[in-house]
Amino acid sequence: MTEAIRAAVFEELAAVGYARMSIEGIARRAGVGKTAVYRRWRSKLHLVLDIVSALAVQGLPAPDTGRLETDLRLLYEVTSRALRHPVASQIIPDLQAEAARNPEIAEAMQKALRDGQESVASSILAAAVGRGEIRADLDRDLALDLISGPLYWRAVVIRSPKLPKGYLGALSRATAEAIKAL
Question: What is the rounded distance in angstroms from the CA atom of residue 56 to the CA atom of residue 123?
Fold first, then answer.
């Protein structure tokens, strides 16, 4: 039942957005009564925070192909698909707008996005250091920004409908070279 409710939250967020989302709508989509939702979460805010926090824990598998550039390419392929998923592409901008007005949502979004991406990117960087591809004392925060920023910019900020042909390969090469220069 909890999974049905969580799935219903994503559907409801995509359909009506956070501001218009209601426990009644979630319960209807999940095929449960409102009391089943309220038994687990005391408000829609707590429900959304729980789901956003759960996403942070899931994380992505860290690729380890033996080369920084190909590790980045795999990460970008998975991240690009996730950001362009029809539900995610509607939910993320809406939650960010709510985060501007609600510090609790802002904190949960920041944690979900930062921690999830950071753990994978940190693993990629650690493996590259271990192979001698990059310096151990590089500016880690800058490297993480270089890894995480471009796809997020394209998919979420400017909402580009699709990536140009060869973009992920070019991005992987450019990012790997930039990180090596740090």
Answer: 16
